Amino acid sequence: MSAPQSILPLEVRQLVYEAGGTRLLHDINLTLNHTQRTVILGPNGAGKSLLLRLCHGLLKPTSGEIVWRGAGTRDQPIRHQAMVFQRPVMLRRSAHANITHALKLRDVSRSERPERANAALALAGLSDLADRPARLMSGGEQQRLALARAWVTEPDVLFLDEPTASLDPAATRAVETLIEGFHAAGTKIIMATHDLGQARRLADEIVFLNKGRLLEHAPAKQFLERPDTREGRAFITGDLLW
Amino acid sequence: MNTILNAFAEAGVLLASFDSDFLAIVGLSLRVSLSAVLIACLIGFPLGAAVALFRFPGRGAVALMLNTFMGLPPVVVGLIVFLILSRSGPLGVLGLLFTPTAMIIAQAILVTPIIAALTRQIIEDLWGEYSEHLRSLNAGPLDTLGTLIYDARFSLSTAVLAGFGRAIAEVGAVMIVGGNIDHATRVMTTAIALETSKGNLATALGLGIVLLVIALAVNAGVQIINAMGARKDAIA
Amino acid sequence: MVIRFAFLLAALVLAAPLAAAQGTPLTLASTTSTENSGLLGEILPRFTKDTGIAVRVVAVGTGAALNLGRSGDADILLVHAREDEDAFVAAGYGAFRRDVMFNDFVIVGPRQDPAGIGAQKDAASAFATIAMREGLFVSRADNSGTHKAEMRIWRSAGVDPVSASGRWYKESGSGMGATLNLSAGLNAYTLSDRGTWLSFRNQGDLTIVFEGDPPLKNPYGVILVNPARHPHIQAKNALTFIDWLTGPRGQAAIDSFRISGQQLFFPIAKQPQR
Q1: CA dist list (Å): C58 to A197, A233, B189, C30
Q2: pLDDT digits (tens, 9 = 90+) for A85-129
Q3: CB of C243 within 8 A of CB of C270?
Q4: Using CA atoms, how far apart are residues C154 and C127, in angstroms rounded to an integer?
Q5: Does C12 touch chain B (CB under 8 A)?
Q6: What is the pLDDT of residue A116?
Q7: How far apart are CA C130 and CA C127, in angstroms?
Q8: Inside any domain, residue A14
Q9: Domains delineated in chain B
Q10: pLDDT tens for residues B163-180?
Q11: B64 CA: distance to closest CA in chain A (Å)
Q12: Domain assignment of residue A231, yes or no
């Protein structure tokens, strides 16, 4: 909410990631501040998910640095972040218990957890499904639950990796509304997508990746109307990039 | 053929009689084996999960040991525990030889590798699914273990049943460390061995049938609990 | 619910050693011949009634029983292998030995007696005949008192049966009951104590083909495991037991024990003793 408490800005310096001898990300340099919604755009295999996981700390860079420069940065930046995956990981528990579990890991006292979980479920429109086994919910409901579970930990930054890629339009709209809610409440949004429409709806700024390289980092309007690179123009017009 | 028919009659008589000596034997069998399985779970769950989750030196060797020890011959375990608990052995002062406690120890040693090895497999599979979420939540080792063991509880019950099956059915270890003492350490399997050695083959087989019925009841019970729990918690 | 169940189990486990520690029964290591025949089941309750001392029986072969005494895992031994018993006491493992009773061995074999040993004049020539005609014979081969008696008879017959092991001479390596089961299955000869044979329910086509020779007499001795060597031995109660067993009450109990009307064990304790 208040910028001075945030762990942002995030600075990525000369980031390289290799796996099995193959270089998957080449020399990424990037600084993200806390106000704008950042959409990482690019075709499948561009390295969007890798970049998110590296920034979140799920992967270790082969070389380069990821630094949280904000005044609110304490010893464990990951505790002020949350991530929502394309296929949400649903614990084998009720919707409500999925959320209280996250609260427990954030050291929220046992007495406080149920109330906060209820609030998160209400926010995601899942109050009626609180006792439903999470794994029996629909794909859209699961993704909303994953967002509620992220929201309840009050992160400074929320990473989203193609959160609507396997959802129908109605479920996608619901998820996007929740993401807007996060943004309105002051959470930094960093989302990967290959969906241009979604980028138009949600992005303040665009980071365009192709084949493991950062090709453009620009305000959304600018990139979507006048991409600087040939690859960017091809992506916007729907051509296949090779 | 007659012996087999008689055995079913004997089993029926035993079950219907509620003979106090017989019930004491059944009770001791269950107490010893369930206690051994409980101890094996307390050790095997965290151990198996740790081997599944954590990279540490000798991890491969531990996994290999667990898989190998799944096939430990009960008599060997019995012999080792006997030598340790013997008055001349290192723990002789405890005076545990020929007590139910000694039998529980021996069976726990037999069962722990089974539960640990199966736990390792189950937890490894679940970890593959949960790891990004738990790491994203910055879960520490204990929270990670706890979450995985709790969420794998229904799969783990299969491991527990496998362990219980081995414990309740083995005779080699309890015979050596328990001594098959009447009214003290006689369990179903040692009673079967005794009746066989007396040539009471029908009685022996009758006891065997009863043992089977008890094992069936325990398995059915766990399966029913699982089915109810599965509906509630959606383990699918 | 799962947790409550776990607590219940934990309570069971914790209760186990407590139950075991309440009162300290004597541990009597004895042989399958005394336990399986029902003798101990008959006389021990009388002892407990007379004295309030409980006795737990570990029934193994004489060799294993002597080992339990050596390691201090039994308070008292009731066994039948005179030479080994004397050696056991002489080596300081036992405090003393006393005669208790005797029973006898019988040679059990197929009803048709294919080797024709029933007509032999003594046990040694019966064994020699089995060896000569290569009649199937099952040996305990487990270092038990019965096994030692069997080997004594082979020696006096001048036969080394172990050289025929696997052919007509089968070494079961197990207790009397398992050996009798094997003999019944193979329709073979074997040496058994009379008590185990009489109470054995799976006799098949076997019967007693030779009995009554004095070398088949089988004396039992009772030994107090040496408390000087193993301080935890319950010497006082053990002495009470030995005095009772070799005294009038115990000897009368042994004398009155019958299986299907037949007396199996004959008291021989000299009285009074001490």
Answers
A1: 83, 90, 16, 6
A2: 999 999 999 999 999 999 999 999 999 999 999 999 999 999 999
A3: no
A4: 7
A5: yes
A6: 96
A7: 5
A8: yes
A9: 2-233 (1.10.3720.10)
A10: 999 999 999 999 999 999
A11: 27
A12: yes
Half-sphere exposure of A233 (CA within 13 A, CB side): 4
The three state secondary structure string of C41-81 is HHHHHHHHHHHCCCEEEEEECHHHHHHHHHCCCCCEEEECC
* Cα distances (Å, whole numbers) of residue B187 to A209, B25, B34: 70, 5, 13
pLDDT of residue C18: 42
C119 CB within 8 Å of a chain B CB: no
CA distance B33 to chain C (A): 10
Measured between beta carbons, the chain B residues lying within 8 angstroms of C176 are 197
Confidence band of C274 (pLDDT split at 50, 70, 90): very low
User: How many domains does the structure of chain A reveal?
Assistant: 1
Whole-prediction pTM? 0.82
Segments forming the whole domain that contains residue A228: 3-236
Neighbours of chain B (3+ CB pairs under 8 A): A, C
Q: Which CATH number fits the domain that encloses residue A107?
A: 3.40.50.300
Q: Is A91 on the interface with B (CB under 8 A)?
A: yes
| Residue of chain B whose alpha carbon sits nearest to that of A94 | B233
Q: Which residues of chain B have pLDDT under 70?
A: 1, 231-236
- Measure the CA–CA gap between B134 and A157, rounded to whole angstroms: 17
Please indicate, yes or no, if residue A241 is contained in any of the structural domains. no
C206-210 and C262-263 strand pairing: unpaired
CA B49 to chain CA centroid, Å, is 18
Residues of B engaging C, defined by a Cβ cutoff of 8 Å: 31-32, 34-35, 38-39, 86-89, 92-93, 95-101, 104, 153, 179-182, 184-185, 194, 196-201
Q: Do chains A and C touch (3 or more CB pairs under 8 A)?
A: no
